[in-house]
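Annex B. Sample input.
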Amino acid sequence: MKNLVRVVLLLSIPFLFTGCVTYTLKDAGHHKFGTMNIELESSWNEAPITIGNKTKVWTKEGLFLDRLILINGVKHESAIFHNTNNDTPMPKFNKASLPHELADLIKTSLTLLNGGEQAVEITQMKPVRLDQHLGVNIFFSYYNADDLEMKGRCIVAVVDENLYGLLFNAAAIEYFDRNHSEIDKLFQGIRFES
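Annex B, continued. Sample output.
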């Protein structure tokens, strides 16, 4: 319980000063994030937070309601997200991971990112192609610290021995379904530069 309070406080600090921080508008259209190229159907806002060395966080309605996490080239033996708990470090990505192992990496990483108290449940998993690379498409759900049900979807693949992908999660009531078709097109349209 003590760790949960620390994690909630740590994760809440950026939101307490929202009047002091600047979100960056990402207009509809083409966007490049490292070697990953995506096409946005509508505008998003890049949040001024860092949850991992190779991630960006975007939102439409605010970080407590929806977020899109761009994962760009997490290296072998590195974590996707920064540690939030000294007792349980984030799992490390392995470049030889199979699709089901990538799903476990996402599940455990999200559980720990959210404080470790509320487990993320994978509701569906299937192999997919991310551009020309074999990956996995994961649907998941969990309850956040406020007992709000969250639903999400993640698509990840190993490209040139690094982990790439997109992770979308939103409040199950309205926000996940509202953005479902746009997220589906976004996930299908990911391209990589050689």
